[in-house]
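[audit] Reproducing an earlier prediction to check determinism. Same input, same settings, fresh worker. If the tokens differ from the archived copy the diff job will pick it up downstream; this log only records the rerun itself.
[audit] input (404 residues):
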Amino acid sequence: MFHQKLMKRIYCKKAKGTLRHIVMMLALSLSLNVSAHSVMDDGHHVDTLSLVERISLHTNAVDWVLCIPNLAVEFDVKARNYNRWSFMAGVRYRPAMKNTFVMPVVFNIFEVSLEGRGYWRERQATPTGIFRHHRMWYEKILSARAMLPSHPTWVFYRGGYAAYTKYSFLLKDAITGRQGQAIQAGFTWGFEKPLYQFSDGNSLDLDCGISAGFCMHKTDKYDVDQQNNAYGVTEKAEKWKFNPYPVLKDIHVSFVYRFGQYPIQKRYRWRYDADVQYRSVMDSLYSDAETRALQKYIADSIYNVVYMDFRQVYDSVLAVRTAEEKAQQIEQTRKEIETLKAESEQQGEALFEVEPGKAKKEKKSKKSKKAEDSAPAEEVKDESATEQEQAQVNITRKEDDNEA
């Protein structure tokens, strides 16, 4: 037990000494005179970078304060001074310390990560047009447009990362430790500013940023077994678990060492600022776009004025015509009703009204008609009777003649 306390004191003293040295180094680095190297490059030509000049080394001072050695290598995608995309591969490793007895504090980590970045610089914005000024805070964070660029030599970046981590933590022997694996993915944001340029052309920059995202982990629990002088696993994880809450990967205050004659003031520039020919082409395109936008604005404004005037006149005329049409329809309907009423009245008079003496005349006409119909029948009857009598007389005469 005495040996454990003694080693713990020695370990804490070494850690405090390391922290003190790192803080002094940071203060010394930040106190360097960099005013002579804070001038933005204003050359209007495209530069080609060599393979070595596209490489830069990063190391995070925050990890060094936590006694985690780390190193990352960044490589620019294109060999041009207007290239603004890069990939970075990094490793963080703090190995387990070998001791004759188990340590009451455990802090071991191994991590490999891959990160992609997109750089940009501040550009002067306009009140209107293509490069109009952003007003919302989330637009300002991810935008390069500013009414008054305050950091012309700084370069901002945003991107994403993916990382694989193996870890083992035990902060106190009375608390259960954690060990396992984790897979992380998320977003990163930050900025870089120049610090110092050496006589051979190499330069030193400061990188400040933050990385956060989501995590899947598989974690075992363990504690310290004092009797057996070993770590015992109390709970073993069988499946990977997804953390539904965002996880902070790291806060980096890194030093960036760049090779070659191209410091950060000459890198990650806008193509528009680096190439005169490209600038002339883009100016013509922008002027055409602005002209079309202005013409469209004028046409829309005139159209709106004319349309509103026409609409007012049209609405008034339409209202008058609608009123006249309604009046005509009402008048026509009234006339049709009067016509139908007159016809119905005439039909009623023919059915129900009788003129004086009309019935008598109708009776006389009926009797005369019957007499006319019956007279010819009687005459025909008399004629048929006479003919029969004459025939009978003739027959009688013939019989008398025969007898004689």
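[audit] rerun output stored. Observation attached for the diff report: The chain is about 40% helix and 30% strand.
[audit] end
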